[in-house]
Amino acid sequence: MKKCFLKICCGLLALAVLAGCSSTPGGASGADSSAAGTSENSADMSGAEPLSEQTLPISDEKVTLTYWRVWSNDYTPDFNAYQVNEEMEEKTNVKIEFTTVASSIAKEKFGILLASQDLPDMIENNVAYPGGGEKAISDGVYIDMAPYVETYMPNYRALRESDETVRKMTISDTGKMWGIYPLFCDNDKTLCAEPSWIGMVIRQDWLDDLKLEQPHTIDEWHTVLTAFKEEKGAEAPLLLSKTGIMPYDYFLSAYGVKSEFYKDGDTVKYGPIEEGYRQYLELMAQWYAEGLVDQNFISNEITSNAPKDYIATGKSGAATYSWAGTGNYLYETGSSTDPDINWQPITGPVLKEGDTCEARNVSYIAIQTPVSVTTACEYPEIAAKWLDYQYTQDGFIANSFGDSECYTVDDGGNYAFTDKIMNGEHGIDPQNEQFCYRRKDFPGLVSWEVYDLTNPAERLAAREVYDSDGTALVLPKIEMTDAEGDEYNALYTDIQTYVQEKTAGYIMGSEPLDTYGDFVETVKGMNIDRCIEIQQAALDRYDAR
């Protein structure tokens, strides 16, 4: 079933390196419906009887499939050596030869892979295909897996159809399936999203010393940040990203908007041209002048997890961080020399007491690293059956707990890690030791409750605090057509750059706020309304799936 796609290779290398440009705040770009609808890579299986269950071995004769994934581990550098892979091969009679690349070079390597015409049988999509998954089908690179799911994947089919959000997120606007998604569940294999892994945190030990309660409203935050600066000597009481906005739009969302595109009911809007954005800029300009926010935010690479040189040293008192890093984790792991350091989760800021923050990190049941079967695969039916097997009990165990020596399970169905994980040979904490044996974010069922086995209850409780914020402003994972994506990128790249430059200027005081009206008119003159229309069309198609 190997196919030639020489006609697209000349442009693929450059496009793949720039693959991120096809992604938008509302979702990744896809292919034109007309092109996708006529793809030759949609198999006709009208005569095949759909499987009701998988039987082992999957193949009577040993079959070898190749698999490309973004992965690295300092302690077990060869993913092929994982014992779970050997155990899976014995049961299925399918050998998987993995090629792995580090995330730091993934885009470059993905571009080279596409241009080489030497595709593996399967590709794990940590890096987006230029133009999106449907375009990969119409380009003759990926197979439309929809008929294979219907015929050869009874476990995956049943799971995705059991949840409406999962069903929508695992199929394209035109009914194609360019990837097979890992699915989160609990230890009972019931589909459910992982609680939010990241959110706002605050120096609780400082609050306790100052006899202050956790702040909720903007006014309360002003009091707390002022105390952090004046009483605790914080250089950057509140950390912002270089755009002048916190990750996940904390503080900004208190004004009912987000930093880019967001939902107002079923309507898509663009935050920077709304009144709430101006109010946020006014607040941050005041706080910047008072020294309550990082004075060097424009030059600092603040990502989701705040940098340790700020949060472990007493420079900052409020930021975003993973639940696993709460409490005194930074002291325990040697990042901080302060034995009293205590970072605790806190809900997102609001304007009025009793309001709910409506923007945060959102976790989904369908993990965003789907696996695609390529047109180079000579045994797509075998690949489909092997992928489906990852959604059985065996796949659930391999992804969640590792090989047979890594875990025990009692009569009540309660899992526990053995000393192989809890006191592992690599001399690292169990939270990281487990990844030397289990297949993180691999296709199949994966329990998010596995983290409960290696973390104290206090840190796990942070997830509930993060999840108590709402998501009303957050767009789902929508996708554009190829034509829409091209038009959108041509327009929005310049708009995004302009907005970020002006936002930083307003906050730092180099741009007077009385020019905000002119700023809005300029953004509208750059055709932001057309970008909103494209996002709206994509949202409407998603809702109609």
What's the gist of this structure?
The protein is an alpha/beta fold and 545 residues long. It has 22 helices and 15 strands. The chain has helices spanning 6-17, 33-37, 83-92, 106-116, 133-138, 146-152, 154-161, 164-169, 204-210, 218-232, 275-289, 308-311, 329-332, 380-389, 393-400, 419-422, 430-433, 457-460, 462-467, 482-508, 516-525, 528-544; strands at 23-24, 27-28, 63-70, 94-101, 122-124, 183-185, 198-203, 261-264, 267-270, 318-322, 343-346, 371-373, 407-409, 415-417, 445-447.
* Poorly predicted ranges: 1-40
Distance between the termini: 30 Å
Biggest sheet features: 4 strands, mixed
Q: Compute the number of helices.
A: 22
Question: Structural class given helices, strands, pairing?
Answer: alpha/beta
Helix proportion: 25-40%
Cα-atom radius of gyration: 25 Å
Shape: globular
Estimate what percentage of residues fall within beta strands. Answer: 5-15%
Q: Quote the average pLDDT.
A: 91
Task: Give, in spatial order, the strands making up the sheet with the most strands.
Answer: 4-3-5-12
Number of strands: 15
Describe this structure in words.
There is one protein chain. This protein has 545 residues and is an alpha/beta fold. Helices cover 37% and strands 11% of the residues. The protein is built from 22 helices and 15 strands. It has helices spanning 6-17, 33-37, 83-92, 106-116, 133-138, 146-152, 154-161, 164-169, 204-210, 218-232, 275-289, 308-311, 329-332, 380-389, 393-400, 419-422, 430-433, 457-460, 462-467, 482-508, 516-525, 528-544, and strands at 23-24, 27-28, 63-70, 94-101, 122-124, 183-185, 198-203, 261-264, 267-270, 318-322, 343-346, 371-373, 407-409, 415-417, 445-447. Strands 4-3-5-12 form a 4-stranded mixed beta sheet. It has a 3-stranded antiparallel beta sheet with strand order 10-7-11. A hairpin with a 2-residue loop joins strand 8 (261-264) and strand 9 (267-270). The two termini are 30 Å apart.
